[in-house]
Amino acid sequence: MKAMKRILVWALVILTFTACDDDDDKQTVVELKHDMRYTFNVTVRGQWTEETHPNYFPGDAGFGKVVAITQKDDNVLFQKGKKAPTWMKSYFENEDTSNFTNYFTEQKTNNRVSGFTSSEGCPATGSSEFEITTEGRFNKFSMITKLSPSADWFIGVNNIDLDGLAYGGSATFITSVWDAGLFSGEYHSNKGSATNESIETYKGAPLSYPDGGINNFAIVTIKLKSSEKIEP
């Protein structure tokens, strides 16, 4: 009888452990791990055509250099309703990204940014691909690329949560156009005068589109390439 009781007790212990393991599986949280380093492939595919945006479509339409970061906090690269820093003007004037490099090097030192990259843009219906690497605790992605030619219009994504890609897969986002508020130009070839306005979405001429059209300019796809443990 004592032997039978022992067997029943062990069975209960095993069943209890099994039940706990099942509960743990159900509660698994998918997120980037702080002790891991992740590399993502990012593709920007242009969707800007004369058919989708027939008003004043420029013959040399395309996208300028891409600037991308990974960060912990929201709105490190840009924020709707806030003014862009004046040092961004050189990027919109001649695609000079050196000020971005200087600024985000400082932000990495201040522990606000992990990954930073600058890569070439693409034609209006072309594509641009690049990699960006981040430590797991910097789990947000942001990027911009200038609409070219233009005064200070850009497309971008902001504060994209990367946690869902911790174990693989990809995520795709559709972009429209933002106005950086740094120049007053209202046409592709007209820069206008310097201004100090807030960043806002832009839907006016010459970027307006026909009734029933879709104001999309590019598709951004983020895909996990690899991950590795950070050595102490």
TrEMBL record:
<feature type="signal peptide">
    <location>
        <begin position="1"/>
        <end position="21"/>
    </location>
</feature>
<dbReference type="InterPro" id="IPR038678">
    <property type="entry name" value="Spondin_N_sf"/>
</dbReference>
<dbReference type="Pfam" id="PF06468">
    <property type="entry name" value="Spond_N"/>
</dbReference>
<dbReference type="InterPro" id="IPR009465">
    <property type="entry name" value="Spondin_N"/>
</dbReference>
<feature type="domain" description="Spondin">
    <location>
        <begin position="28"/>
        <end position="213"/>
    </location>
</feature>
<keyword id="KW-0732">Signal</keyword>
<protein>
    <submittedName>
        <fullName>Spondin N</fullName>
    </submittedName>
</protein>
